[in-house]
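Customer ticket, subject: "Can you confirm the structure for Pimeloyl-ACP methyl ester carboxylesterase?"

Message body: Hello, I'm evaluating your service for our small team and ran a test protein. I'd like someone to confirm that this is what the system normally returns, since I don't have a reference to compare against.
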Amino acid sequence: MSSVFGDSGYARLPDGRRLHHVSQGEGRPVVVLESGLGASRVEWGLVMPAIAEHTRVVAYDRAGLGRSDRDPHRRDLDRIVEDLGHLLDRLGEDRYILAGHSLGGPIIRSYASAHPERVAGLVLIDQAAEDLDIYYKRGMRAVAMGAQSVMAGLATFGVKVVPGEVRRVLALFPPDMRAEALAEMTRPSEFRAARAEYAALAEGFARLRSSTGALPPVPITAISGALTPSKVEKRLRPELIASHRRLVEAQPHGRHVLAERSGHMVPQDEPDLVIAEILRLVTRPAG
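Agent reply: Thanks for trying us out. I re-ran your input and got the following:
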């Protein structure tokens, strides 16, 4: 089955599951894009074409999302990182530049800490930060998981649920991309997969927060959204930006960038900025 987001393919995992991925362009180093919580390859529709003018770029659907098989096991951070590792093995390159948005940030950092020899650089795009208390509050988690359950139930009865922020972001996409994204994002399975990721989020973040695993000494860029469109954002945004700065300041080749026209959805609101920071690493001399 073709995809307007790139050439479709499947990576077969050791347990028989398949991860769907799309690819554009040719060349090395290969860039692999990791989406946010409950998001699939469609998140990168505005970023991939420009990257593909310089090298090969791959985005994929995590288990249960998009066109990938569901995972019967608990979707904790370790399991997600393990799946990413199998995908990278199947793609067949020695080293990759990894870029991750939101939850994608902790995922690619965890992989880089465990497999430093496979990573040539990291771009963390308004990444979730395990040192913020909000991810551990039971009330917040219950509300989020309840909302996912309600949306899955509505979708089961044919009600197409599209949150306002998602609708706003999709309006930035060309019509063919928007249509493919909506067809998948409104399925009950998408909401269930997002709920499964959220259910194990605090547990995985707690382990990551207490981890002593160091990041490899490669170029690492953290991009932070600067806008605060909601009351929650106004309270959390300064803490999140501070966390991003602390992380890169502790790295030998760290770089912090503010996305002045974006809140959390930087890959859609400022795709050119994301593209520029990824290409900085693609065109950087080796060594």
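A couple of notes from the result: The chain is about 45% helix and 15% strand. The longest strand covers residues 18-24. Feel free to reply with more questions.
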